C-alpha cells in the first residue's frame, strides 16, 4: 500500500542538541494528520525535513510513493506547503501572486488563470483579486497563502500553524477550507499548537515531545485511554476561595481552579459528586452547576508532555 507520507528513523541534530530522534510514522492517503507538541519539541524541524527544506542526519522519507532524496523534483510536484512564517508578496495583487506561483510550478498561462480563478472563488477572494495584498487583513492573507500552496494541485498539503493570530471567524473559514480540500481525497499534514483545531479537524493525532514520538492515535481513542483524566466541573455559591477544603478525599486525584469553577480529575465521577455534595452540605455551600466530562484532547496533551501536574500544583498553591 502506498502511504501519503512515510517517515522512518528521522533524526536531526544541531551540534549536541538532538532536535528529532528516530521518528517513524505513516499517514494514510486522504487523512488529516495532526502533529502536536510543546514549543521546542521538534514539530517544525520534522515538517522542514518532510518538505525537503532541511536534510535529516539519518532516516527515510516518502511522499505519495516518491522518495524525497532520490526523487526530490518529483516529490515537490505532489506537495503544497504553507510554512509558519510564510507571507504573500505585498506589492503584488492576489492575482499576480497566484500567476507567479503558477509559473514556478510550470503551468501554462491558460491553466494558471483557470486554476487561480477557481481557487480565488472557492476562498472568497475573487472580488479582491486585483487589490494589492498589502491591504489584505491577516485572515485574507492566510487564505491567499492556501491558494498559493494549492496552485500546483498537490496530493499532500503541509500546514504549519495555519490559524495562529487569526480571529475566531477567520479561523473557522480556514478550517472549512481545509475540510473542503480533504474531501477531494487529498491528505493534510497539520502542525499546530491549537488543541481544539486538532480535535475539530484530524483523523489521527501524533504528539511529539523532546524530539520523540510520545503517542499517536485517533483523538477519541486518546481521550478514552486516559480514564484518570475524567473530570467533574462544579461552580459553588458563594465562591469557594480556600481550595484546601477539597484536598482530603479519595474520590479525586487532582483539581484546579478555572475561572469561577473548579475542575476535579477522577476515575470515579459518581464518588466525586457524592464527596462534593456532602462537602457543600457540611460547609454551607450551594452547587450552582455540576457536570461530568470525559478527558479533553488538551488534557491528554498536557498529560503526555508532563505538564498537567505542574499546572495543577501552581493553581492549588
What can be said about this structure in brief?
The protein has 317 residues and is α/β, with parallel strands linked by helices. Helices cover 36% and strands 27% of the residues. The model is unreliable at 308-317 (pLDDT under 50).
- The helix/strand order is EEEHEEHEHHHEHEHEEHEEEHEHH
How widely separated are the two ends? 53 Å
What about the largest sheet?
6 strands, mixed
Strand arrangement, major sheet: 6-7-8-3-9-10
CATH superfamily of the largest domain: P-loop containing nucleotide triphosphate hydrolases
Number of strands: 14
CATH topology of the largest domain: Rossmann fold
Fraction of residues in β-strands: 25-35%
CATH architecture of the largest domain: 3-Layer(aba) Sandwich
Structure commentary:
With 317 residues, the protein is α/β, with parallel strands linked by helices. It has helices spanning 43-50, 72-77, 94-104, 109-122, 138-150, 168-183, 195-201, 219-225, 269-283, 297-304, 308-316; strands at 5-14, 17-27, 32-36, 58-63, 66-67, 79-82, 156-160, 187-191, 204-209, 212-217, 231-237, 254-258, 261-265, 286-293. Helix 3 (94-104) runs parallel beside helix 5 (138-150). It is globular, with a radius of gyration of 24 Å. The N and C termini lie far apart (53 Å).
Topology, please?
Layout: E1 5-14, E2 17-27, E3 32-36, H1 43-50, E4 58-63, E5 66-67, H2 72-77, E6 79-82, H3 94-104, H4 109-122, H5 138-150, E7 156-160, H6 168-183, E8 187-191, H7 195-201, E9 204-209, E10 212-217, H8 219-225, E11 231-237, E12 254-258, E13 261-265, H9 269-283, E14 286-293, H10 297-304, H11 308-316
Parallel strand pairs: 3-8, 3-9, 6-7, 7-8
Antiparallel strand pairs: 1-2, 1-4, 4-5, 9-10, 11-13, 11-14, 12-13
Helix pairs in contact: 3-4, 3-5
Amino acid at each position: 500500500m502506498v502511504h501519503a507520507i512515510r517517515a522512518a528513523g528521522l533524526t536531526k541534530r544541531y551540534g549536541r542538541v538532538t532536535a528529532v530522534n528516530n521518528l517513524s510514522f505513516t499517514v494514510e492517503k486522504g487523512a488529516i494528520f495532526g502533529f502536536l507538541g510543546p514549543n521546542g519539541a521538534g514539530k517544525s524541524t520534522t515538517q522542514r525535513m518532510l518538505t525537503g527544506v532541511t536534510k535529516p542526519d539519518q532516516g527515510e522519507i516518502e511522499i505519495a510513493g516518491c522518495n524525497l532524496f532520490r526523487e526530490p523534483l518529483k516529490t515537490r510536484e505532489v506537495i503544497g506547503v504553507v510554512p509558519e512564517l510564510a507571507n504573500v508578496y505585498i506589492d503584488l495583487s492576489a492575482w499576480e501572486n497566484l500567476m507567479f506561483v503558477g509559473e514556478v510550478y510550470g503551468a501554462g498561462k491558460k491553466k494558471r488563470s483557470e486554476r487561480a480563478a477557481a481557487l480565488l472563488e472557492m476562498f472568497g477572494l475573487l472580488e479582491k483579486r486585483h487589490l494589492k495584498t498589502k491591504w489584505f487583513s491577516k485572515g485574507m492573507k492566510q487564505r491567499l497563502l492556501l491558494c498559493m500552496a494549492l496552485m500546483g494541485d498537490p496530493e499532500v498539503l503541509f500546514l504549519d500553524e495555519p490559524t495562529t493570530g487569526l480571529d475566531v471567524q477567520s479561523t473557522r473559514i480556514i478550517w472549512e477550507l481545509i475540510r473542503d480540500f480533504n474531501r477531494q481525497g487529498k491528505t493534510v499534514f497539520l502542525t499546530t499548537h491549537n488543541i481544539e483545531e486538532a480535535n475539530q479537524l484530524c483523523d489521527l493525532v501524533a504528539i511529539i515531545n523532546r524530539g520523540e514520538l510520545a503517542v499517536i492515535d485517533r483523538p477519541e481513542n486518546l481521550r478514552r485511554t486516559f480514564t484518570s483524566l475524567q473530570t467533574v466541573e462544579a461552580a459553588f455559591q458563594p465562591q469557594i476561595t480556600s481550595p484546601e477544603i477539597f484536598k482530603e478525599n479519595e474520590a479525586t486525584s487532582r483539581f484546579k481552579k478555572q475561572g469561577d469553577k473548579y475542575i476535579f480529575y477522577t476515575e470515579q465521577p459518581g464518588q466525586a459528586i457524592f464527596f462534593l455534595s456532602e462537602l457543600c452540605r457540611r460547609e454551607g455551600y450551594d452547587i450552582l452547576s455540576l457536570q461530568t466530562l470525559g478527558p479533553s484532547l488538551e488534557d491528554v496533551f498536557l498529560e503526555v508532555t508532563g505538564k498537567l501536574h505542574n499546572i495543577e500544583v501552581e493553581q492549588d498553591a
